[in-house]
Amino acid sequence: MELARAQQEQWDSAYARRPCLHGAEPSAAAHRAVQRFGAAGIDDVLELGAGHGRDALFLARQGFSVHATDFSETALDQLRHQAQREGLDDRVTAALHDVRDPLPPADATVNAVFANLLLNMAFTESELRSLVAEVHRVLCPGGVFVYAVWSTADDCSRHWQQLDDGLCMHDGFVGRFFDQDLVRTLAEPWQLDELTPYDEGQRRMLLVAMTKLPAAQVAVWSPTEMSH
Ligand SMILES: C[S@@+](CC[C@H](N)C(=O)[O-])C[C@H]1O[C@@H](n2cnc3c(N)ncnc32)[C@H](O)[C@@H]1O
After folding, report:
1. Which helix or strand (DSSP H or E) is residue 44 part of?
2. Pocket of ligand 1, candidates 58, 71, 103, 178: which has the most ligand atoms within 8 Å of its Cβ, to mutate?
């Protein structure tokens, strides 16, 4: 809890010190999400860890309705302000939410979830599993989750200060580098549609897209089957 609170303060003051911290250009993952969501006929998106909204605003400009959440009120204020300036406030809403808490939507009510550089934040593996389970719970069957994370192929993964539970720290920011095994583990009840390494700026990244299967298609493990 202390780490979580310290990270929240760290992010909030980073956004206050430097508005538009991540720049105005959308991420590569947001471009991919537009293709994926568009191909699935989806026009509304829940974005987690949206920051000051470079991707939420981009998605809205492409015609999507976006509900953006983050645990930094400062970042969300910047997002709301920019949405208003661009006349996109009818398509973008923003709400404070810490993804360690259950996601607000009811079961199976969301068509698409997007998260760029959120899952690689300061979460224990158990928090990560809960978060992905929450995304699974709120998505409708056939719903799509697109996320991007730092990859262990990035040189920084060796140079940052190592903490417990696979986390590491740089400049007061705590995060995790993902290998493909971790992505596959988190994808277990899902259909993993895409796992693509790519570079963005100086970062080596992984792009992940997965679909929530209808209940009938989820392989059910049973001790009886395992004993044969
Ligand atoms: C690297 S930034 C990415 C921001 C945005 N997705 C982008 O690409 O511009 C990570 C974001 O995750 C948010 N964040 C970190 N931990 C969070 C948590 N537990 N709940 C909600 N947001 C969180 C931070 O406030 C920050 O805005």
Report:
1. strand 44-48
2. 71
Residue 217 has pLDDT above 90, yes or no: no
For the chain, what percent of residues have pLDDT higher than 90? 86
Number of domains observed in the structure of the chain: 1
The residue among 193, 185, 191 whose CA lies nearest residue 219 is 191
| CB of 22 closer than 8 Å to CB of 52 | yes
The whole-number pLDDT of residue 228 equals: 32
Domain that holds residue 69: 2-227
Q: Which of 10, 133, 132, 122 is nearest to 74 (CA)?
A: 10
1 pLDDT more than 80: no
Report how far ligand 1's centroid is from the alpha carbon of 117 (Å): 7
* pTM for this model (two decimals): 0.94
Ligand 1 binding pocket includes 59 (Cβ within 6 Å): no
Q: Which atom of ligand 1 is nearest to the CA of 4?
A: 19
Q: How far apart are the first and last CA of the chain?
A: 44
Among protein residues, the one with the nearest Cα to ligand 1's atom 27 is 51
Indicate whether residue 145 lines ligand 1 (CB < 6 A).
no
Residue 156's pLDDT is 87
Reply yes or no on whether the pLDDT at 226 is more than 60: no
* CATH number (domain holding residue 173): 3.40.50.150
**What is d(CA 120, CA 176) in angstroms, rounded to the nearest whole number?**
5
CA of 161 to the centre of ligand 1 (A): 20
Q: Which atom of ligand 1 is nearest to the CA of 75?
A: 27
